[in-house]
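Researcher: Good morning. I'm working through a list of sequences from a screen, and I'd like to move beyond sequence-only analysis. For each chain I'm collecting a predicted structure so we can compare shapes side by side. This is the next one on the list. No need for commentary yet; just the structure.
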Amino acid sequence: MNDDIQIDPRGYRFGAGVTLVVAALALVLGAGTAGLILMAVLVAMFLPGALIGPQATVQSAIFKRLIRPRIGPPSETESFRPPRFAQQMGLGMSIAALVLGALGLTWGFWLFGAFVTAASFLNSVFGFCLGCEIYLLLKRAGTRTA
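Model: Good morning. Structure tokens for this chain:
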């Protein structure tokens, strides 16, 4: 895998918007069958981004095909690593929500579903990638101790 992949930050912000819609709808539907199905959809949406990077997600493909041609190339690009870490966090949170909800522990569905919703809201609306910031904090902490 290429370690210096650069991505369009507008693409993963768009992806966060798609995630926000699905996560919010899952919360509206609750921890029943429909909400759990949407949480499973979120797991599937996060998986390629968590394993490869946000450039491998369905949301990214939609952005590249339908939106980027209309808005033009980015003025700057970013490393895929912080958004990939954010995707990994989203994957973990959505799996936790799905599993706990499926086990009848609805508090877990609501708690972890709310985390996914809040983080995707911050990214899509304000351009603040919480997972990216956590990645950078961990990276700095690791650099200082090394």
